[in-house]
Amino acid sequence: MSTDKQMKNVSGSSESDLLKNLQVSAQEVLEVAQKKGRSKCPKCNSSRMFYCYTCYVPVESVPTAEIPSVKLPVKIDIIKHPNETDGKSTAAHAKLLAYEDVTVYTFPCIPDYDNHKHETILVFPSPNSVSLRESLKYLTGQSSPKEDCEPTLKRSKLENQATDTGKDAVTESENIDCLKKVVFIDSTWNQTNKIISDERLQGIKII
Ligand SMILES: [Zn+2]
């Protein structure tokens, strides 16, 4: 059980500010759909509740116009293990809300990141993983001089904040322009090994 005090210690003030500032859309549309029960996917005609986890679109009882569309600052690739149950995957929610910026791949059909390793990070718990802050420093170093993100990355500020609570937080003044894509793995733990060891993912900075 966690008390408010413990929660505050864990989350820190920046996270509670983030939650306070979230713009949450009205959920009436989902309540109405729930009363109607399962409905058809407009693409594959399967009977689903709220959304189709195969086509990543809302079902007919959920008007697309009433579902928020989020523009993300980076592109997201989600690599899904083929044995994962589609209906249980939370990757679908990201694709539903940010359709243009999120791509879901089913392993082993994944992109070749060879020409994009200098602007891509992979989110995965690993002995080699670094903080988001560290990864941005790394990507900055990897950028070609022409792109040159270095001057806008405020190093003195980074160093000062290293002793603050938000070790991994990146402030608005810090430049994340070097980061174009974030890759996630959607799989149960015992199935991640095959994906994370795939040669196409080697050399991508892990956070
Ligand atoms: Zn469908």
Automatic annotation (TrEMBL):
<dbReference type="InterPro" id="IPR005636">
    <property type="entry name" value="DTW"/>
</dbReference>
<feature type="region of interest" description="Disordered">
    <location>
        <begin position="141"/>
        <end position="170"/>
    </location>
</feature>
<keyword id="KW-0808">Transferase</keyword>
<dbReference type="Pfam" id="PF03942">
    <property type="entry name" value="DTW"/>
</dbReference>
<comment type="similarity">
    <text>Belongs to the TDD superfamily. DTWD1 family.</text>
</comment>
<dbReference type="InterPro" id="IPR051521">
    <property type="entry name" value="tRNA_Mod/Golgi_Maint"/>
</dbReference>
<protein>
    <recommendedName>
        <fullName>tRNA-uridine aminocarboxypropyltransferase 1</fullName>
        <ecNumber>2.5.1.25</ecNumber>
    </recommendedName>
</protein>
<keyword id="KW-0539">Nucleus</keyword>
<feature type="compositionally biased region" description="Basic and acidic residues">
    <location>
        <begin position="145"/>
        <end position="158"/>
    </location>
</feature>
<keyword id="KW-0819">tRNA processing</keyword>
<dbReference type="GO" id="GO:0016432">
    <property type="term" value="F:tRNA-uridine aminocarboxypropyltransferase activity"/>
</dbReference>
<dbReference type="GO" id="GO:0006400">
    <property type="term" value="P:tRNA modification"/>
</dbReference>
<keyword id="KW-0949">S-adenosyl-L-methionine</keyword>
<feature type="domain" description="DTW">
    <location>
        <begin position="48"/>
        <end position="205"/>
    </location>
</feature>
<comment type="function">
    <text>Catalyzes the formation of 3-(3-amino-3-carboxypropyl)uridine (acp3U) at position 20 in the D-loop of several cytoplasmic tRNAs (acp3U(20)).</text>
</comment>
<dbReference type="GO" id="GO:0005634">
    <property type="term" value="C:nucleus"/>
</dbReference>
